[in-house]
Design brief:
Radius of gyration: 21 Å
Shape: globular
Largest sheet: 7 strands, mixed
CATH superfamily of the largest domain: Type I PLP-dependent aspartate aminotransferase-like (Major domain)
Helix content: 40-55%
Number of helices: 14
Number of strands: 15
Distance between the termini: 59 Å
CATH topology of the largest domain: Aspartate Aminotransferase, domain 2
CATH architecture of the largest domain: 3-Layer(aba) Sandwich
Bound molecules: pyridoxal-5'-phosphate
Order of helices and strands: HEHHEHEHEEEHEHEEHEHHHEEHEEHEH
CATH class of the largest domain: Alpha Beta
Number of domains: 2
Length: 403
């Protein structure tokens, strides 16, 4: 064999990504398909969003709007609608972005998060993220060459939710900390950070000169309390990259239309990375999402109330089956503690659950660096039709009774 024919002996996957296998969602969804189980693992709705929004996408396709490369920052109609959305829901808190310079359309929130990290993080910078964290965060921090510094959300008996330990957060900041990557409402725990917690995060960012990147994709799915954008707190506007997406708000998670709002300087930085990732995406869907954002308040209220009822239905079923059930004031997810069932490993439990009772769930341990902190917790998605949730509840009860 000549030197030219030799296969390189180095591992194919580079060191930055070597620790990341297949995402847990792909693994568990494949398990659901293989076993015919009800999939409460991955957070996607089993009913599409509003008919008029789907029709708006069809119209855009037919009218030839967005079938060729849209403008890099996003189509003007959508940027205007995103700016109007921020003003409509958060204008009284002082948010009023300029659609020309302070809005960037992305391929979902996922691309926005990755682009923000690639743009703002130098190799060696530390990035603080709340664990358990959304699974793309760790990989995105790694791709940017950053070091992730997890701060653990801990179960709080008084509120029945997971809460942020502010002392632990303060202690996590070092001279190398570049930014805090914050997700509220929080996936997977369902926690919504309070005004007091966000005030403390904001004060810390200002005091230590940190940037913030906020993932607010569940901003309209808050059942108790309120969603407050971190960018609206004193001193935060000029240091916060605010990220959201149409996927969860309009139940079209396959369209992948997301956005960034921030100062022109921050948007410009994120755009520098984003333009070489996808450049642009989802042309016709951008027009449809522009229409969706302008839906009346009754749409947003209706979505929230439907999901609240679904949350209550599943939470009740899980409690009756013997799970410890945390409150979920926000998101698509309820987190459970399996120790009352005599179980200790969420991973073993979730691998066995499809065979045992025909339900798929996700062990939240995989979203932790401190794996022991997440071992007994299992996440169930309730963004499914009530009948599906009721069926799942019956199955789960059978599994618990059967030991
Ligand atoms: C679903 C989800 C995303 C991904 O949003 P896309 O717009 O589909 O890319 C990002 N962050 C969190 C917390 C999510 O749950």
């Amino acid at each position: 064999m000549t030197a030219d024919q030799r296969v390189p002996e180095r591992p194919l996957l580079n060191r930055r990504l070597a620790e990341f296998g297949t995402t847990i969602f792909a693994e568990m969804s494949a398990l659901a398909v293989r076993t015919g189980a009800i999939n409460l693992g991955q957070g996607f709705p089993d009913t599409d969003g509003p008919e008029e929004v789907r029709e708006a996408a069809v119209r855009a396709l037919r009218d030839g709007r967005g079938n060729q490369y849209p403008p890099g920052p996003g189509v003007p109609e959508l940027r205007t609608a995103i700016a109007a959305h921020q003003r409509r829901w958060y204008g009284q808190l002082g948010l009023d972005p300029d659609p020309e310079t302070e809005v960037l359309v992305t391929a979902g929130a996922t691309e926005a998060i990755t682009a923000a990290l690639l743009a703002l993080v130098e190799p060696g910078d530390e990035v603080i993220a709340l664990e358990p964290y959304y699974d793309s965060y760790a990989a995105a921090i790694a791709m940017a060459g950053g070091t992730r510094v997890p701060v653990t959300l801990r179960p709080d008996a008084a509120s029945g939710t997971f809460r942020l330990d502010l002392d632990e957060l303060r202690d996590a900041v070092t001279d190398r900390t570049r930014l805090i990557l914050l997700n509220t409402p929080h996936n997977p725990t369902g926690t919504v950070l309070s005004r007091e917690e966000l005030t403390a995060v904001a004060e810390l960012c200002v005091e230590r000169g940190l940037l913030a990147v906020t993932d607010e994709v569940y901003e309209h799915l808050v059942y108790e309390g309120e969603h407050l954008p971190l960018a609206s707190f004193p001193g935060m506007r000029e240091r916060t990259v605010t990220i959201s997406s149409s996927g969860k708000t309009f139940s079209f998670t396959g369209w992948k239309v997301g956005w960034v709002t921030a100062t022109p300087e921050l948007v410009g930085a994120v755009r520098s990375a984003k333009q070489f990732m996808t450049y642009v995406s989802a042309g016709p869907f951008q027009y449809a999402v522009a229409e969706a954002l302008a839906l009346p308040d009754s749409y947003y209220t209706g979505l929230r109330e439907d999901l609240r009822a679904q949350r209550d239905l599943l939470s009740r079923g899980l409690a009756e089956a013997g799970f410890g059930v945390f409150q979920a004031p926000g998101t698509y997810f309820v987190t459970t503690d399996i120790r009352p069932l005599g179980e200790t490993s969420g991973i073993d439990f979730c691998l066995a659950l499809p065979e045992r009772c025909g339900v798929v769930a996700v062990p939240t341990q995989v979203f932790y660096d401190h794996q022991e902190a997440g071992a007994p917790f299992v996440r169930f998605a309730f963004c499914k039709r009530p009948q599906v949730l009721a069926d799942a509840a019956v199955r789960l009860k059978g599994a618990a009774a059967g030991g």
